[in-house]
Every structure is written in C-alpha cells, then in structure tokens.
C-alpha cells in the first residue's frame, strides 16, 4: 500500500497559555497516520512553555526564541518541517473534527500544490458560522478562505514563504504570488477544515489591511480597472464608517 503523504502541522504561539492545550489536543486527536507536529514559540513567559514540555512526547520538534512576528515564526516552522504538505494551525485554532486530515487527503488526491476548504468561525462580535471557501476566480477580491484551512506543498514555501512587506495581508500576498506562478489549487466543497475564534477588527486596521491587500494583488498580478474600483469602493466605505464613528463621538 502506498504510504500517505506526510503532513506537517505547524503551530505558532506566543504567551497563550489559556488556548494552546486545546490546539495541541486537536492535532494529536487526528486519525491521520502520518503527521509531523511542530510548535514555534516566540519566547513566551506566561507558562506556555510548561504546556509544550508536558506534551513533548506528541511534538516532533519545537523551538522557543524571539521572532519578528507571526509570519516570521511561520517561516521558521516551514524551514524545519519535512512534510509533503504544510498546514498552519496556530494557538487558539483547531481542526474541526478528528478525521479532518484523513478526509482532506482522501478527497483531494494530493495532486495539487494548494488544497483548501471551509472554516467555522466563532465570533465575539457577530453570529458564529460556516464560512464557505470561494472559487479561485474570487482571489482578486481577497482571501478565498482562512489560512487555517489551507494545505501547501512544502516545496512551494521553502524557497519563498511569507513576505514581511504586507502586514496582516501576508497570507493573501502569498496566494497571489503562488497563483502568479501557476500553482495548482484544489477546492474541497463543503469540507470544514478548521475552527477558530475571530476578534473584531478596528476600522483603522481594516483600512490598512485593504491597502496592503491591494498592494499584494498589484505586485503579483495585473491590476485592472475593476480591481482598482473594487478596492477604492471598499476603502471609501471603511473610511466613511471611521468618519461616522468619529463624528458620533464628538457630538
């Protein structure tokens, strides 16, 4: 029987003692037989290292040292991984159920560079929900799914990885880059891969993220009139919200 591809599950954490154990449990409960589990800690001081050490027998490799942020840590994890595919399930994120990776591999056939699917989000500011992955044709308008619900062939990330020039849009920029290089994408229909809790994003951060997303698309793919119009419209809407809230506070 042909051996199933190795999947490197990389978890990035920094001072998250309250949520790390649930993420670890989610990984070690997976029924998929060929997993490499890596944890990259940014030099935590809150007891996170105690949790990592208690689970040491389940972890193939872990390091703890200061980093330049989440994408730097994710790149570190990529470099020390040895799997055929990589998925990032960071501290606080979880697989939707214990057979997720089995389902992903069996349904996808492992012939594509990027495999992606749906996610379930628990939001403190909005209704929880099942968020369906979008078709690749929608990439020009933003992320087609959460990065927690994407598996990448390791060879794609080792030489390139996440750029540090696009802020929180670095994951989107990576997709634009891979698409520009003709990477093959496979969308899993109605397969929920990950579960995570999202917090509210401030208007200022949303505006900055939109600017970085446009820059990411423009720098990798052709920025046509409809793309420029879309981002201009989004920026106008978000700026309007910011002004409205400012006026409301002042009045």
What does this molecule look like?
The chain is α/β, with parallel strands linked by helices. The protein has a single domain, classed as Spore Coat Polysaccharide Biosynthesis Protein SpsA, Chain A, CATH 3.90.550. Helices cover 38% and strands 22% of the residues. It is built from eight helices and nine strands. The protein has helices at residues 20-28, 48-54, 70-80, 100-108, 154-158, 170-180, 203-220, 225-250, and strands at 7-13, 35-41, 61-64, 85-88, 94-95, 114-123, 129-131, 150-153, 185-198. Strands 1, 2, 3, 4, 5, 6, 7, 8 and 9 form a nine-stranded mixed sheet that branches. The longest helix has 26 residues, at 225-250. The termini are far apart.
Secondary structure blueprint with pairings:
Elements: E1 7-13, H1 20-28, E2 35-41, H2 48-54, E3 61-64, H3 70-80, E4 85-88, E5 94-95, H4 100-108, E6 114-123, E7 129-131, E8 150-153, H5 154-158, H6 170-180, E9 185-198, H7 203-220, H8 225-250
Parallel strand pairs: 1-2, 1-4, 2-3, 6-9
Antiparallel strand pairs: 4-8, 5-9, 6-7, 6-8
Helix pairs in contact: 6-7, 7-8
Write a concise synopsis of the structure shown:
This protein is 38% helix and 22% strand. The protein has 251 residues and is α/β, with parallel strands linked by helices. The chain has one domain (7-200): Alpha-Beta Complex (Spore Coat Polysaccharide Biosynthesis Protein SpsA, Chain A), CATH 3.90.550.10.
β-strand percent reads 15-25%
Instruction: Please tell me what the overall shape is.
Output: globular
CATH class: Alpha Beta
Count of DSSP-assigned helices: 8
SSE run: EHEHEHEEHEEEHHEHH
Helix content: 25-40%
What's the total number of strands? 9
What gyration radius follows from the Cα positions, in whole Å?
19 Å
Q: How far apart lie the N and C ends?
A: 71 Å
**Please, how many domains?**
1
Per the CATH scheme, the topology name is Spore Coat Polysaccharide Biosynthesis Protein SpsA, Chain A
Secondary-structure class: alpha/beta
Q: Give unreliable regions as ranges.
A: none
Average of the residue pLDDT scores: 90
